[in-house]
Amino acid sequence: MPIIELPGGRLHYRLEGPYDASTLVLSNSLGTDMSMWEPQIPLLARHLRVLRYDTRGHGDSEVTAAGETLAGHGQDVIELLHDLGIERAHFCGLSMGGMVGMWLAARAPECIDRLVLCNTAARIGTPALWDARIAAIRAGGMAAVVPAVMARFFSPAYLARGSEAVDRVRRGLEATSVDGYIACCVAIRDADLSADLKSVRTPTLVLAGTHDLAAPPEEEQALARAIEGARYSELDAAHLSNIEAPERFTEAVLGFLKQ
Predict the structure, then answer these.
(1) Beta 89-94 vs 23-27: how paired, if at all?
(2) For residue 18, is it left (φ>0), alpha (ψ between -120 and 50) or beta?
(3) From CA 195, how far away is CA 201, in angstroms rounded?
(4) For the domain with range 3-258, which CATH number is right: 3.40.50.1820, 3.40.50.1240, 3.80.30.20, 3.40.190.10?
(5) Cα(194)–Cα(246) distance, rounded to whole angstroms?
(6) pLDDT (tens digit, 9 = 90+) per residue, 166-203?
(7) pLDDT (average), residues 220-229
(8) Would you state the pLDDT for residue 259?
(9) Which strands sit side by side in the sheet containing 49-53, from one edge to the other?
(10) FRET partner for 144 with CA separation of 20 to 30 A, picked from 16, 61, 115, 259?
(11) Burial class (CB in 10 A: 0-12, 13-18, 19+), 128
């Protein structure tokens, strides 16, 4: 289990794939860890050097104050790349991970080659929504929000079918650190990247989910319009589109990166 000590605290990561290939960083959503990318790894790691990590406060990454700001999460990626000797990489982030990608493309463009923004927006939700979720978790732990979050992660039809993938995500959500989750809620609540998008010049693909309630397609279409030259594609899925529509998701990402 590779752990690296960064200025913001310990970070858990995994690096796999051909050593001489281009590097792709995968950044997970709020309430998941790096295991959310398992459906993508077999194909991506055949063509790319894949670097995934547990977002601060999730999985085996340390809970610290750095997790309370989007800048802190962005600095984690910059420091991780630096310490691993990777000068430049592609970046694919989903939901909160996508927000980290936007921050990097605007603030540290020299680190990012191509950018894939999945099920995300320049501003996700409202401060009132995040304050209510934080209050619920402080009162009742992660169990207080698991049903509502799962209903946003996946479409009703996909949840009704049931699968090991859904069960794995639920178990991971239930096991997420309360303090780590709340810190990331604060970071998302306080982040608005709308003004940063006009400075993004990184080739970008925006991937949306038709049934996504957390980052609806219209918000992602606006995101694609705001980033010069960005491409837009939509999948028949909800928020965790990489799990609900894994084959189409992986093909879209790999096709974009290999162009």
Answers:
(1) parallel
(2) beta
(3) 14
(4) 3.40.50.1820
(5) 29
(6) 999 999 999 999 999 999 999 999 999 999 999 999 99
(7) 97
(8) 84
(9) 3-6, 9-16, 49-53, 23-27, 89-94, 112-118, 204-209, 231-235
(10) 61
(11) exposed
Domain boundaries, the chain: 3-258
CA atoms within 13 A on the CB side of 97: 31
Summarised one tens digit per residue, pLDDT across range 17-49 is 999 999 999 999 999 999 999 999 999 999 999
Please state the length of the chain: 259
Give which of 93, 104, 133 is closest to 215, Cα–Cα.
93
Q: Which amino acid is at 13?
A: Y
Q: Which amino acid is at 232?
A: Y
First to last CA, the chain: 33
The pLDDT tens digits of the residues spanning 46-81 come to 999 999 999 999 999 999 999 999 999 999 999 999
Tokens encoding 8: 């913001």
Global confidence as pTM: 0.97
Report CA torsion sign: 29, 31, 33, 38: negative
Query: What gap in Å lies between CA 249 and CA 65, rounded to an integer?
Result: 33
Q: Residue 240's closest CA among 183, 166, 164, 171? A: 166
Amino acid present at 80: L
Q: For tokens 């990097």, name the residue.
A: 104
d(CA 35, CA 103): 23
CA distance 257 to 259: 6
| Residue 116 dihedral angles phi and psi, to the nearest 5° | -120, 120
Cα distance between residue 246 and residue 251, in whole Å: 8
